Protein 1
Amino acid sequence: MMTPDVSNAISFASLDDSLRKQAEYCNALLHTGEGKGSDFLGWVNLPSSVTADFLNDIKSTAASLRRLADVVIVIGIGGSYLGAKAVLEALGNPFEKRRPEVVFAGHTISEDYMAQMMEAVKERSIATIVISKSGTTTEPAIAFRIIKQEIEKRYGVDGAKERIVAVTDEKRGALKSVADAAGYKTYVIPDDVGGRFSVLTPVGLLPLAVAGIDIDSLIEGARDMERATAADVPFDKNPAAQYAAIRSALYRKGYKVEILVAYEPYLQYFAEWWKQLYGESEGKEGKGIFPAGVIFSTDLHSMGQYIQEGERILFETVISVSKPHRELRIEKADNDGDGLNFLAGRRISEVNRMAELGTMLAHVDGGVPNIRLEISEISAFNVGSLIYFFEKACGISGYLLGVNPFDQPGVEAYKKNMFALLEKPGYESATAEIRKRFAK
Ligand code: PA5
């Protein structure tokens, strides 16, 4: 069981009794439903409520897509994209060509990206999973229109039925109407699970099953963490409450930026998923820790200087993986021209570990508090556990901050302007307003 190591953070901000009690209380609120945003607590007991039948149904749909397609295009944005992408990167091998290849669309409105992707799949069989909880988000809707038309052109309207799967709201939204009318296989995103908390629903599970990820173990790991952070688990045994509490203590002392650090490049998208989870959940009412992510030692050579000596508003949370899957040693060279023979016979992971410890000491000495989460190895079980850990801690953190962690009112502002600029029907007065601003 993972326990956050806060020994290099508590000299910067202490975890007093009152904060421990508040964290325990906020954890309990997530279970009693008496806190803010209680309509969106479906994720709290989600891992333990997933049934074997449900997972088997997902696996059977995934198997049929795998049979049909060389490339499965997963369409979605935000919470309907980042979870699957994060887990896929964490558990995959970037150098391995797999069939089917899982690619993502609808998370950008880049014409070049979309055109390049369509070009790349021209000679390969395709299928798609289109994911949108609201069913009305513009970015995935544009991608879906293009991909659906391509699928229908190639395989006919009937053939499209077996190559298109929708994951959306049970009743509402344009995607639901389109899927119902066309007769696509559809999975429901539960009403009480918000986008960024939805990776353990079909939103994440279906694309991951298509990619051959062991979704049973993923859920099993999440279940394990659900038990470890249950309502009655005391603070000293509850890793999510401990992480939430130390973040809150640091924030109150002026540490306003949290950097999620990993020493494994395959965790880059895990940091992206985490950034959305915490950024959308906490950044509101003029409050909240700004979440950033880095991969070391790559980013030590870009962000290292700032972290070591820039504004002292940063703290780091390090995901440390103890055991690599593969073994690669540095060999002795006859000619020690590069001066590396002192490392002969040692594993690269040992060098990486020393880089991690050395960096931690340097950053702590430089005034950057450090929280460390040690994971024995990256496996589907441990990733599932980590996902639930961060979700639970996020709910507790939001309550400690005094905000509703489950809404995202700020995400709407850009959409209104974009629609006004595009002259979408119904936005006439907003269009006129914006024109006036540009005319000045
Ligand atoms: O967390 C959220 O709710 C958002 O980031 C959504 O996931 C994102 O906006 C995509 O929304 P939808 O799934 O409705 O297309």
Note: Residues 5 and 372 are 5 Å apart (CA to CA).
Protein 2
Amino acid sequence: MSDDCLFCKIISGEIQGDVVYQDDDVYAFRDINPQAPTHILIVPKRHIPSMNEAASGDAELLGKLLLAAARIAKDEGVSEDGYRLVINTNRGAGQSVFHIHVHLLGGRQMGWPPG
Ligand code: 5GP
Ligand code: ZN
């Protein structure tokens, strides 16, 4: 838990989030400003600021994020048509909240390359 982290506050319930999934390690909630019909953020309950701070000891936790994302995509009904998982890392890539999160985007056709 980081005291000044928005996503830690959502995980703790201090700030309300529209939760779609959680387990011991992972928390997932709907993005407040959705960029696709399905836009869910999948985060580790443990505070890690970005992929730049992720270490080899976090390998299992990071894998759990991806597997949770795939499960949520299925539950949301977007897995067959397709979905995109995005991890923005640092400002140049558009990261604005410094608690690792996987964006799950689906429900529309995605362009490539991403902007
Ligand atoms: P980033 O830009 O760091 O990759 O993604 C941060 C995401 O968090 C953005 O898509 C933004 O819409 C979302 N976000 C920012 N504040 C809140 C909030 O208070 N609640 C929720 N559910 N999402 C938020
Ligand atoms: Zn945090």
Note: The pocket of zinc ion (ligand 2) is lined by residues 2, 5, 7-8, 47, 99 (CB under 6 Å).
Protein 3
Amino acid sequence: MDIDKISKNLTTPYYLYSENLIKENINSYMKHASENTLFCYSVKANSNLSILKLIASMGMGFDVVSRGELFRVMTIGADPKKIVYSGVGKGKDEIKYALECGILCFNVESEGELHAINEQASAINCTANVSIRVNPDVTVETHPYISTGMKENKFGIPYKNALDIYLKASKLQSLKIIGIDFHIGSQITSIGPYLDSLKSIKALIHELKKENIELSHIDVGGGLGIKYKDENIINKDVFISTIIDELNDLNITILFEPGRSVVGDCGILVSQVQYIKETDDKNFLILDASMSELIRPPLYDAYHNITPVYKKESMYKNYDIVGPVCESADFLGKNRPMNVDVSDLVVVEDVGAYGFVLSSNYNTRPKPAEYIISNGNINIIRSADTLDQILANELL
Ligand code: LLP
């Protein structure tokens, strides 16, 4: 659609998503749906209620990591039996709330957590379904901040201790062991680390059987990468079929927790050029969007295409594309050849995942509005913050 025309009535910066693209991504997962698969969208990637509702309406469940995320999916009427709860630091209140909601299962990340869940379940006279998150110690080529399956990461139970933890869990009265899971990182572009992980997880399942611990599901986490620049990404169909084939002999339900690959390439951030500053050493395009709307470039050295809305033929210059925030880390792109004028619009691409959700009010900047294109219409799905809202919880 014509971003110039759309932007006439909207205030920049703003996020804009495409419902069609989200549906396409969901379909490429859901066409593999069967009684032996469950797709649990990882809410952290984009937790806007309208987007969650769309995702639930197409049959996906959810992977949540906090009371807040669980509250969001319960608010849109998600089926609790399709919700898994991950994360290393679940609080007692969070566990209690999840038990009251009747979620499918907790992905447990430590022995302490097993006891905490057991206590909460026993206090309200119910049984908690648990799956143990195992850290398979595989190396993944991604940014170190988003790799999670190596020994030095805080996530999961070390592989060598996992059997012992299962045995301990089996003795706790208010727990029912139903699964095993791993999540090795994010923006993964090769299937190798998944297959390596499955190999050791299958060996563990074998050991568990010998101890009479039978699992009904294996959760392979999320992590599938998308194309931001020139990455060779794993095709979703190939990924899902390979995993299903690999586990065929186990007769077990397979859970997937995709986040980025459902929404990442379905969103853009539209921003306006405020100033152009050219110096002897560097040229800067100063936008009205900043690290407070999109922190991925400074935080993970992430690359996002930045495209001018009006294409011009003449000379291009290299610019660092920056925002108004008072930090040298406030950049959205570096050394980008651009030819734009003040007041022109630019589009930051592929920001549907980990974009708005990681935005902040730093420098007391209002979080931007979010819109979605559905059936050719632009619908607002979150208004921009007002300054009064930002100040509302502060006391004088
Ligand atoms: N399951 C678990 C347990 C996770 O921790 C995550 C993501 C996912 C599923 C979904 O992974 P995905 O399919 O989206 O890769 N903020 C970073 C990404 C952090 C990912 C955290 N965990 C970024 O902007 O790249």
Note: The chain is about 30% helix and 25% strand.
Protein 4
Amino acid sequence: MTKDEIAAALEEIGTLLELKGESSFRTLAYHNGARALSQYEGDFQELVSTGKIGEIRGVGASLAEKIQQLAETGELPQLTELRAAIPPGVIAMLKIPGVGPKKVKALSEDLKLTTIDELKAACEAGTVAKLKGFGAKTQAKILEGIQFLGTVGQRVRLDLALPLGEALLEQLKKLPGVIRAELCGSLRRRRETTKDIDILLSSDNPKPIMDAFVTLPEVMQVVANGETKSSIVAAMVVDREKIVLNADLRVVGDEHFPFALHYFTGSKDHNVRLRQRAIDQGLSLNEYGLKGEGRDVKCKTEADIFAALGLDYIPPELREDTGEIEAAEKKKLPKLITVKNLRGVFHNHSTYSDGNASLEEMALAAKKLGFEYFGIGDHSQSLKIAGGLSPADVKKQHREIDELNARLDGIQILKGIESDILDDGSLDYDDDILRSFDYVVASVHTGFNMSSEEMTARICKALAHQATTMLGHATGRLLLRREGYKVDLDQVLKAAAKHGKMIEINAHPIRLDLDWIHVKRAKAMGIPIVINPDAHSPGELALVEFGIDVARRGWLEADNVFNTKSLAEVLKELNRRKAAW
Ligand code: DGT
Ligand code: CA
Ligand code: ZN
């Protein structure tokens, strides 16, 4: 076991003893020992091999023995027994804010509760309030705490985590003595969800920066406040949702910054690969530097590190160990698409179906973002709960579009529809009406409970329809809320390639399907991708930025994406498809 793992084990023993009702004198010895150990800055392995752990300040003889045993074997009978005696669900209750070992002991012994779920039910039934020393107020607090745990314990969507991460970063950047500062980890790689916020900063004087960090207004709780690393629980309201996330700040000297930036950006798999490449070249790479025999390879930026290892610069979104190092070596990395490449969008809603703004408002908002074309893709007639358009509505909408296009400058509205893919795989209008659209986005909105075989056949049939231009949200997932329907996406990609259809990256950050792995596969198969915000309000048009993140993670260049084409090119292609029908 490493020093940190042992410290954690000691903390655990202290806590488990508290749950058993041990005297605080005994339990404190473990907690203090754990802190002493984790703060020890010398060579811990040396102390282990020479049997001198007792020299660590704050570690007594009996604790030193246990540490020695943990270091050598990774086990301690005392810990094993304690773990077996107390259910993990009871230990988990300790994470609820305001619930300490004494309360947990009472809840588990007097009410025989063994999990947080059972505790929640007992609170809701009012049983907890009746327990001696608890009361209605405490019961309400526990319930609130359980809810809070639900938010912290989970991953958080990128669109919600990013504003919090950026708020922290911006405040840190303003502090005196900060040389460079960046977000790292999954946020920098733009993963769809994130576990925590990783921030790296360089400075010659970390102490005041750390002190400022742990007192930022977003701080709910200080988990650790150290010389080079501090951890907080931070909270912020984003889009009316209270976002709670752990945030780690690491401070390094500026000469180490590029190495630490690369290391803490990850991914772990990418790091492992790059480190191996360094070894193969007789070098050693870690978060502090790049070393050869008896010399440091000086690097001012991440690009310098890659260059020193014979590689082109690898953008963070590509650092997932899916061939980026090989491509960087051969100078074959893609020239990744950026949001500026987008010239329009195809899948959006208006008040004709379930959007909250008029066609004109939506089109003007698109123009403001610099788009040349705004494609409407309201819902089709079967989707009654979302105000799907009847054939008469379609005619009315098309007349309004003609009128708007005659009147508005600098933006062209395209006549699209988001046609439901019906259970049998057919589209939601007859051919005459389908022919009246410039394009058709085909999407599944109902009948999610089919088998994968049925769903795959259903979608592939819709892709074979001559009217279909592109497949909308390919899996129907809602991130962290709902799994997608069961479908064989690789078969769907094959069908799209066979019939020459496009596939959408649904840029809405709640959805983000197609996922980046399938985006990369689609690219390899030559399937054109479309990045659509699925906007239901003018503000949501800007969500394309999250689709760009997925596209970049999927190695896409501007050329792979249909809505990077000019209006003239788009019209030409859509007309070509219609003429071929
Ligand atoms: P997350 O937090 O689950 O959304 O994803 P990440 O990638 O931010 O992961 P995190 O926060 O655990 O660690 C941040 C970065 O630190 C990670 O991307 C790579 C680096 N890292 C962490 N643990 C290790 C490790 O054991 N080995 C290596 N090579 N790198 C690591
Ligand atoms: Ca992270
Ligand atoms: Zn839809």
Note: Residues 185-186, 191, 194-196, 198, 263-264, 266-268, 271-272 surround 2'-deoxyguanosine-5'-triphosphate (ligand 1) (CB under 6 Å).
